[in-house]
Design goal:
single chain, membrane, transmembrane helix, mainly alpha, 105 residues, 4% strand, transmembrane, PrgI family protein
Length: 105
């Protein structure tokens, strides 16, 4: 009901704003075009809520209860367990590579 009243109010406002300057035909089309979005909102349903409830939930969740979200950071347990082994292999590989370089000089 809220959006139908809002659509009528928009149509009346557009009527009184443009009737003298644009004429009846163009003003009537402007009234229709200004009322259609608000009338259409009256038929929207999302997850069992109508548009008024969607706006209330959106305002509450986006503005009133705005808080910093926690970021999820993954931890690779297998890497943490095998990290010393990896580091040892990397160190051994780099040492053998360095020894091979020194052979040629």
């Amino acid at each position: 009901m809220f959006f139908s009243v809002l659509a009528c109010i928009m149509a009346v406002i557009f009527y009184f704003l443009f009737i003298n300057s644009l004429g009846m035909e163009i003003t009537s089309w402007l009234c229709i075009l200004s009322a259609v979005p608000f009338a259409g909102l009256g038929f929207i349903r999302y997850q069992g809520m109508n548009a008024e409830q969607i706006f209330v939930v959106a305002i509450c969740s986006l503005i009133l209860t705005h808080r910093e979200l926690l970021l999820f950071q993954t931890t690779n347990i297998y890497y943490q367990i095998l990290k010393p082994v990896f580091e040892r292999h990397i160190k051994e590989d780099s040492e053998s590579y360095d020894k091979n370089l020194f052979k040629y000089y």
